Amino acid sequence: MTSPGKTEVTQGNPASTPDEQGIASSEATAPALRHLLDIDSLSQADVTAILDSAEGMLEVLGRDVKKTPALRGKTIVTVFFENSTRTRISFEEAGKILGADVINVSVSASSVSKGESLYNTALTLQAMQVDALVMRHPHSGAPHFVARHVNAPVVNAGDGMHAHPTQALLDLFTLRQKLGDLNGKRITIVGDVLYSRVARSDILALTMMGAEVIVCGPPTLLPVGWKPGKSPAEYGYEDVKIIGDVDEAVTGADAVMTLRIQRERQDAGHLPDMREYSNRYGINRRRLALAKPGAPLMHPGPMNEGVEISSEVAHGAQSVVEQQVRNGVAVRMAVLYMLCSRGKEQ
Amino acid sequence: MAESIERVVLTPDEIRRALARISHEILERNAGDHGLILVGIQTRGVYIARRLAANIEQFEGFAPPVGSLDPRLYRDDPEQASVHPVRPTSIPVSLEDRPVVLVDDVLFTGRTVRAALNALSDFGRASRIQFAALVDRGHRELPIRPDFVGKNIPTAHDERVHVKLTEVDEIDQVDLVRLSPVGAGA
Lengths: 346, 186
Known about the structure:
By secondary structure, chain A is of the alpha/beta class. Chain A is 34% helix and 12% strand. In chain A, strand 3, helix 4 (142-149) and strand 4 (154-159) form a beta-alpha-beta unit. Chain B has one domain: 3-Layer(aba) Sandwich (Rossmann fold), CATH 3.40.50. In chain B, the strands form 2 sheets. In chain B, strands 3-2-4-5-6 form a 5-stranded parallel β-sheet. Classes of the chains: A alpha/beta (346), B alpha/beta (186). Chains A and B meet through helix 1 and helix 11 of A and helix 3, strand 4, helix 4 and strand 7 of B.
């Protein structure tokens, strides 16, 4: 799987003029990004600026009046070529709290089901003057393709097995709340890494922030060439350690992340059966106890309780699953605000 | 754009005296109203609001609650708004039926105050909102005026007023700064 280039992103700081308060721009300034397509295209400063802004957004989310005029008059379109509830609703809520109009394109009820090409769908949406396009697609790189052909900012809400940048950002945000600075923290990711765009984006985001990442999963669900004891550095994933035994992988972890077993992709015969997976790799109370005391337990959802995560720990004291969902709205608000509030200059 | 300090317009002592006077004026105008709440505009307005509250406690024996407000999401110039991260707003008590003094370091075009007034209204209907600024530098673009001012400083458009406070900077000082194009010998 190749990473589809970084050319869509214009890096660099905007001319940081002191604002009218006379406040010198000593703080981290928000990045001048055109699109959010993957984690690879972000710098550490970009990520920090997004997470800092998400703090403010989280406060807005907790207000009695959850509405601001920040993106009033902007139109955000979500196009999901793959099923989703939480991510789509999360983007929709984020856009609406910021005052934008959010239109959800249901692919099955749209011209796509009549055979319209991705290119023409993109041009059609562009002609309707949308201000941002949030897109999920089963093919890796599809959002990158669209970003090359439209002027509006494109947010990748998950493409094939490639990337899910907003999930990685909300995971970082949740971990930052729980653990503070992630530098040197040991984060263990357990499960189906092969098919997981969440894992790919999380690994990149975590290592960027200086965390030590441990990956653990059945050999059939690790990317080709990823074997216990080997470092996947040659594939661009540095600072990642692969450990075959889940007990060993979880021991001493500052946080544990479980990944969803994608049942819809398991017909290929990667696993003998779900119960064996659960026995060998499922996170339960005994395994979670091997991690550091109070280590947060994360899951990107939707959970297969009793498979990759036991019901007991999924709803236990260390679970931050619901916090992740709430933080997701705040992070997506920060992303949409950053991309949409830049006006018409290009 | 490079910057060069033209002159110091407020020294540490002058800042202290100005804030003491504003505290007295706030008390005078809101005589006996213990429902008073101060809301500082992020970031330096918050520090000034805290200092005013400390003065008021010293003078009158009660400390008004201090809130902080980031009006960025309410601005009408989003290009400028997106430069800094959005900061959390924190209003410790309901504003319903209470007098509010909004506090900022510099009053310039009035657009920040306009945005802050809109933001405040999402937190309840205050009985009255007044505005205090350490420096009023003129150039209003909206019909907004301060109720309490530390110092009026006439400025040119290409000048900037930099308020430094010990909470975040090395010293208490207000500088007048001139912006000059990069490479023009700054």
